[in-house]
Structures are given as C-alpha cells and as structure tokens.
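User: quick one
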Amino acid sequence: MKPGSPHKASRPEIIVCVGGGGVGKTTTSAALALSLARSGRRTLVVTIDPARRLADALDTSVGSQVQPVNLPGVEGRLFALMPEPREAMRLFTEYLCANEPEALQRLLGNRIYRVLEEAVPGIHELVCMTFVTRAAEELDLDTIVIDTAPSRYAIDFVTYPRRLGKLLGNRAIGWLSGLAGPDDAPRSRSSRWFAWGRRRAEQALAGVIGPGAVTDVAELFAAMALVRERFVDLSERASDLLLVKQTRYLLVTAPTGAASDNVRYLLTRLRKLKLHPVALIVNQGLDATAAWRPLLEPPEPLAPDLAKVLSQLEAERAARLRAADRVQATFARTHRRLPQIPLPYVEAAQPREVVLTLATALDEHLATVSAHASQGSGDPIEP
Amino acid sequence: MNRPPLTHDSHQTLHVRPLAPAVFVTGKGGVGKTTVAAGLAVAAAEQGMGSIFVEFGDSDAGEIALAGAHDNVRYERIRPAEALVQGATPMFRSAWVARGVLGNFAMRPLLRAAPAVREVAMLEAVRRLMEKNPGHRVVVDMPATGHSLSWFAVAGQGRDLLVRGPLYDLCDRLVRELIHPGAMSIVVVTLPEPLVLRETRELCMALLSQHQLPVDRLIVNSVPPALPPAALREARALAEGEGDLAAAAQALVDVLTVRGQTRDAVLDIISSSLGSKAPPQVLLPRAPEDPDATTVAGWLTKAEPR
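Assistant: Done. Structure below.
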C-alpha cells in the first residue's frame, strides 16, 4: 500500500470459479467480472487455464502483465491477467531470485528445473497465484475473479502454494540439497547414525535415478534453499488469499451428467478444505434467448425444410431444459441451502457476445455472489 | 492431400492406419472424451477383440459410461499411489522396501510436488497391462489436465535426464515398448468450436514436431447436423416480410447462420491448417442428450474404414 494513498486498506474480495471442463467456466468468470466492474467495483479476472479462451471472451491479448479491458460500462475498472506458462515461469524465477543473482543462474541452468518449468502440473497454478498475490497488493482492487483450470482436480490448486512451501520449509530440503555432497565430520554418536542413514538413503536414491541425477536434484535444492524464505513467504501469502473463510467459491456447471458429478466431487473437496461454496451457476439453464419460438405456431404452414429445422431446434431446446431442470432439482434436494443461478443458453458467433449476455443475466445475482455487492456500488463496507 | 472427414454416415474407403493395441484418448475437459473412450472400448469388444478400458485416478466417469454397455469390456482403474509402488517394486526388489522408500519423510513431499514421477508410474502400469494381455485393445481415458503433451513427453524426458540406473531403464522401456507410433495410437477428442479446435490443432502439431507422435484419429464430437440448404433461405424470406413472425424469423436466421458457420469453420480449421499432416477426422453428430457408449461405438465402427 502506497503511503498517503486515498484508497481503502482492506484486501480485495476473491471469487474462485470452479467446475469440470466444458461447463463455460471461463466465459462465466469473464461475465461475472464484467458485471462487477459495471456495478462500480475495480475488478481483476485471472485465468489459470493456460489457454486463450479468456482473451477471446474479452477481446484482449494474453499476457503475464495485468491488462485493462475496454468494454462498454466498465470505465477503466476491469482488468485481465492471463499468464502464458513459459513467460510466467521466467518472471516468477526472476522475482524469486531478485536478491540472489547466483541462485537465478543456478536455477536457470539446472536440468531438472528446466523440465519442471515445462511439464509439471501445479507449477503454473502456483506461479499464477503469486502473480495474483502481487496484483492484490499492488493494484487497488475491490474484487479478483479467478478462473481455474478445466478439470475437477483443479480445486487442488488452492493447496499447491502451501504444499510447495512446506516442501521447501521442511527438513527434507537440507537432506536433499546435501545429497552427493561431502560428508560432514560426525560429532556425536547420533549424528554418526544420521550420516550413516543419509549415505544409505543416498545410495538407494542413486541406485534408482542414477548418480548424475542425484547431483542435479541436490543442486536444484541447494539453489532453492537460497531463496527459500522468499518462496515460503510467497506461498504463504497465496494461501492466505485462497484458504480463508472470506474467499468465495462459486461452482459452475452445465446440464450434462459429467458436469453434475464434478460438482458433487467439488462440494466434497471444498468441505474437506473447510471452504464454503456461495452459489451454483447452472449454465444453459434458461431459454431466454430462444426468440424464434413464435415460428412454432405459424398462422399458415411453413415450408417443409423450415418446419424440419424448427422441430429439431425445439427438440434440442426441450432436452437441454429437461437436463437443466434435473440438475437443479437434484442439487435443490441434496444441497438445500446452496443458492442456484441459472444462466441462459446463448448461441452466438463471437465469444464476446456470449459474455455480454451472461453479464447482464448476472447483474441481478451479484448480491448472492459477492459479499460487497449488496452494499451498492463503488464503496465496499469493511467486513 | 486433403482427406474428407470420416462421418458416421459416410461409406468411403480411405487409407487410414488401423488403431494400435494401446489407444490413448486425450482432449480438454468437457469434450466428451470419456464417452468416446468407452465407445472405442465397446467397439473393439463388438469386433471380438479382448478389450480393456483404463481409467486413471479416482474418477468414476468411465465406470459410469461403461455401465450397461458390452459385457466383454474389462474395466481397470489405475491409482497413482498403487502404480508408484508397483513400478518401484522391481527397483527395490521388494514391495515392502519400495513402500518404505516412497513413504520416506523426504520422498513423500518431493513425489507429491513432482507429479511427473506419478505419470511415469501410471504409464508403466499401462505397459504392464499390455504385456500381460497380448492381442488386447487397451483404451486409456487420459486425465483432462490440459497437460496431455507432458504425459507423452515424460518418459523421453526422464530418459534424457537420467544417464543410467533402473529408472532410466524404465523410461527407456516405456519409450521403446509403449510411447511410439507402432505400439500406441493417440486419439484426440475435440469440439466443433473454433477456439477448442485451434487448441487441438496446436496439440496435434506439437505432438508431431516435438515428439514425432502422429495423432491417429481426430474425433470431433457433437457436430451440428448439416442444415437443409433451403431452410436458411426460407427463414430469410420470412424475416424480410411484415408481421409478427418477422422478428422470430430473424432470430432463427441468426441461429442458423451461427450453426452453418460453426460447421464450416470445423472443416476449415482442421484441413486448411494441418494440410497433409491432418489426422484422419471422425465427425460424431450432436445428440440432444448425452449418448451412451454403445451408441458412440456404433458411430465409430461405421466411420472406421474396413
């Protein structure tokens, strides 16, 4: 917080959108952010899905820097962040090693680190969260909407910062970074035993992954040890944004069997993490946009091709609404107190048109989704 | 050469490589990957092959998709923790030691933070399943992590990273016996949405250029049916008219235009950008409700050249 800044000192509200793949999570996140921004709140929408979907939905470009989004009615209050994995990882490493140039060189040169950077799921999530943490601290924001990766396991990303922080914080790091290094002269009987145990463990590890790789592991962890405090601090701050009561988890689903199974799984996971869902968004649950329906009862018969197409569309529409009703009825029974927000089915050529329609549909539900929205625009009340 | 797509209602004979014994079905979440994978397993069983459906992790979507389908499809679930111990057992010469080492205070957080190890272990489990069941079709429903590239890359990376040792041998064996075009086929499932298709295209190109792995089938799920050409014309005429129906007709024109564009875009994005490297495509029709595995198997069998 800049001294003398006229802005509030409270932290932004975090809304995390979770759901299975293909339920329209990114589009919904973009629409929600747009709706919040239009209601007067400075809003950042972040996508952890390393895809261009959010960029397309908001007509903006992908980047590891926060970008302003220009849509009607937001008046400079809407921002987007879409970290590109490789670039994000480099920026993250540089930030991590800001005070340790030597560690930076060692990390960038380490073979295992280079593989981590490309392949390991979870790293991108952590990197994104550190960006979010810094955006939360540096930009004056009211709300941050986080769009998670398209998998039901994506919810686990909330635990990555703490897990990785623990990995570096625990005594294993000392052991791992000392691997294949020179033996310290043992001072006491117990430390002699410890040294013996360590050598045995080293031999076992080297026997499996090869002596070269043991050196790589040791070097990686030795470099990480130099920046450990900064890493643990970053991951703690990221966890503080995610694993707290105030953070609002918004479930997103669509009327398909797999999507409801995913929601059920996510509800269980959230309960285990002691986090509370604020609402269930059922995409494609309304038929507000089926403006062609008067054609179903024409004053005079339509051409056969036209009639055929209409009956096909009507059959699809009915099946979709039946499925949505089933989903809503099921969750109304099993999770009575979970508010449901059905959103319309929109068929449009441009993702942006879908976002605009959904944002308007969400306007009346902001009080359910956001704790501050009910207080009117612009000036959130301190909790 | 631009091949026309295979559809469930086409009867063309094309020179398309038949699927290999192991079939990895991948694609983004929500594209209908599990149903297609179940469909492929049922189709193999219907042709009289021994057929095994593999599901990773603790999802049960595949088990549900298979329920009530062909009796001769065997269901196997591979859990990461078990796969790790089984994969490590030969290295430590005993499951007990393997469990001990993997549960070690330093190893546990390391393994949890480095899922690449779990991926190797799960691929190894698939390899062993193939070894034990020669002549079977093993269909693997890959997790929808958005990291499917890393699954195919991980064994090769492990081999490059380790110079020798049992883990090197394991990665090397995976590359030689499983992760190569003769032993496995990659089936990518996608949706007829421009954005999803572009990502799919990038995946296909990366698999080929970075890992020399061609995609054997590109299955586009839920393709809207071709519209009778007269319908759009008639709707336009109505929209230009007067009266209450004009607005409704205009709405219909908009919907039909979007659908027509979607279908064209699908064919266009795949064929124009991948050119001769485009994998054989299979278009599955959009059904109003989720189709079951047997229905999908029927579509897939019809589309497959004989």
